[in-house]
Design brief:
By secondary structure, the chain is α+β, with helices and mostly antiparallel strands. Helix content is about 20%, strand content about 35%. It contains 1 helix and 10 strands. The N terminus is likely disordered.
Length: about 150
């Protein structure tokens, strides 16, 4: 009976520590914590670009929206569109550079981020974008969550 009690306490402690780390990452970037738990159907017309490597799509979730990117054959990434430079500004939303399809640009501060890993490439922003987990939960469904 004592062992079950200690196991419960350990599981509870690990769960609370994991949630704190997620919120701490958001606080370090100055981005409000928003719970994300979305399923993206890859066969919908708006998401067909995600079916090929290099494809991307926007998702209405997160702080200022999320950009999804099909990085490799079986790997997707998801970044919050909230620019990490002066995060309190209302204009700090990044968008795909449609000329290259490998960068995200912020129209507010002109920072540039890599679509591959979310890192800051140029501009006043020095911190990378907030990343969410993105994994296939079935062949046609992408699960995006924090």
């Amino acid at each position: 009976m004592m062992q079950i009690k200690y196991t419960f306490i350990l599981v509870f402690f690990l769960f609370t520590q994991t949630n704190c780390k997620k919120e701490d990452q958001n606080q370090q970037l100055g981005i409000p914590y928003v719970n994300v738990d979305q399923y993206v159907l890859l066969n919908l017309p708006t998401n067909l670009g995600l079916n090929s490597v290099g494809g991307w799509a926007y998702l209405a979730a997160g702080s200022r929206g999320i950009v999804l990117y099909h990085r490799t054959f079986d790997e997707y990434v998801a970044f919050d569109r909230h620019c990490t430079w002066q995060t309190e500004q209302s204009c700090g939303q990044v968008s795909i550079d449609t000329f290259t399809n490998v960068f995200l640009n912020c129209a507010c501060c002109t920072s540039k981020f890599s679509l591959i890993d979310g890192s800051s490439i140029n501009g006043p922003a020095t911190r990378g974008l907030l990343q969410y987990r993105a994994q296939l939960s079935s062949p046609l469904t992408l699960h995006v969550y924090n």
